[in-house]
Design goal:
alpha/beta, 17 helices, about 15% strand, binds 3-phosphoglyceric acid
Length: about 425
């Protein structure tokens, strides 16, 4: 048991049917029917391998795509192919989630075999809109179709999906009510690492917040500043642009138009209030970059030409952030400093990411874009810890008890093997 949650060490697995919820949500190339990245699938391998090696019949549940922001569900067939290659063992796949075909396939599994079910979000109860509208309790989630159909076939439920631990959905929080449950190895590593770092971060503790996930960034900032966890918050990307707009600094009309068009106007007021309270700890860019005729241009904040869009922090800001990160003992990072995918606007992100790799402090990174930037610059092995979760890490850092953690803890109290 760790942090009140049971681990795989507490269960005998041979001959047991294990429902294992993983997060293998990856960007998909819809035309080719392939995955553009496989980092989350690779992260799931140790748990799946251990379950199979110890003789369990492994049934994997996973989602692909979101009904909220992207409306881009996709089947999990490519994931099964990638997983088969990574494991060097066939992973069976079925285009069913909890219907008669899936249940029959589960019954036919032999010890050590692995089956991946189709996208759980094809079942409406698993969708985030459903979650937000109905707000089912975990007990009610145990009465959903998915749990009712699959739980009777299984001996154990394992959750390895830390990246989805902020979701309150039956495949994540319902099974613990009716089956013995444990966290998988990835969940254990992610949750215990971030819990330990958050509990008593070595100082100075610096947060680097960029990217475009605005609601998450603001939620987290309020907590880490309010609770005194963050000694400094270095801002970049859209987060910084919103603060600068709140302070009346000219950042190019293109940037302001983007903020308004994306309905982030409400955050301008929030940013103003936050800055009033924590100006001593929120660090804003002093210069910004934009692209004209394919070339990078820079100017101090307030002096950008009318009409341009800021796409990166400027080099003076990058140098300042580089120094702050190298002096830090703990760094939490979510989101890049700009449009790092394109050469003229990658300087800020590249500089900050190199500092993260070289700092003697412990750097924790999370979120899809942060991971993509780390891979782009070949720094994966040099970071302190890379978390598969974006939204989940942010919610965790915001001080919320994650729904899946709550369900696993409750499961540990009510269920014995
Ligand atoms: C993620 O990509 O952050 C996780 O897979 C959760 O996905 P969701 O935000 O669509 O629930």
């Amino acid at each position: 048991m760790r942090f009140g949650i049971r681990t795989l060490d507490e269960f005998s697995l041979r001959g047991k049917t294990v429902l294992c919820r993983v997060d293998m949500n990856q960007p998909v190339d819809r035309e080719k029917g392939t995955l553009k990245s496989t980092n989350r699938i690779r992260a799931c391998v140790p748990t799946i391998r251990e379950l199979s090696d110890k003789g369990a019949k492994v049934v994997l549940l996973a989602h692909q795509g979101s009904d909220i922001e992207y409306k881009n569900f996709y089947c999990t067939k490519p994931h099964a192919q990638v997983l088969s290659q990574l494991l060097g063992q066939q992973v069976q796949w079925i285009d069913d989630v909890c219907g008669p075909a899936a249940r029959q396939k589960i019954r036919e599994l032999k010890d050590g075999e692995i089956l991946l079910l189709d996208n759980v979000r094809y079942v409406s109860e698993e969708q985030t809109l459903f979650e937000m509208k109905l707000r089912l309790t975990h007990q009610q989630q145990a009465n959903t179709l998915l749990v009712q159909k699959l739980a009777p076939l299984a001996d154990l439920y394992v959750c390895d999906a830390f990246a989805a631990a902020h979701r309150d959905q039956p495949s994540l929080c319902g099974f613990q009510q009716v089956l013995p449950s444990a966290m998988g190895r990835l969940f254990e590593k992610e949750y215990c690492t971030v819990s330990q770092v958050m509990e008593a971060p070595d100082r100075p503790c610096v947060f680097v917040l960029g990217g475009a996930k605005i609601s998450d960034a603001f939620l987290m900032m309020e907590t880490v500043l309010g609770k005194g966890v963050a000694d400094q918050v270095l801002t970049g990307g859209l987060v910084a642009n919103i603060f600068l707009t709140a302070l009346g600094k000219a950042i190019g009309q293109g940037s302001v138009d983007f903020i308004m068009k994306s309905n982030y106007g409400e955050y301008i007021e929030k940013a103003g209030r936050l800055y009033e309270r924590y100006a001593d700890r929120i660090v804003l860019p002093e210069d910004l970059a934009w692209v004209a005729g394919g070339a990078r241009k820079e100017a101090p904040v307030g002096q950008l030409p009318e009409g341009v869009s800021a796409v990166d922090i400027g080099s003076r800001t990058a140098a300042r952030y580089d120094a702050a990160i190298r002096a830090a003992k703990t760094v939490f990072v979510n989101g890049p400093m700009g449009v790092f995918e394109q050469a003229p606007s990658e300087y800020g992100t590249k500089t900050v990411w190199n500092a993260l790799a070289q700092t003697e402090g412990f750097a924790v990174l999370g979120g899809g874009d942060s991971i993509t930037a780390t891979e782009k610059y070949g720094l994966t092995e040099r970071m302190g810890y890379i978390c598969t979760g974006g939204g989940a890490l942010i919610r965790f850092l915001s001080g919320e008890e994650l729904p899946v953690v709550k369900a696993l803890r409750h499961g540990a109290e009510i269920m014995k093997e």
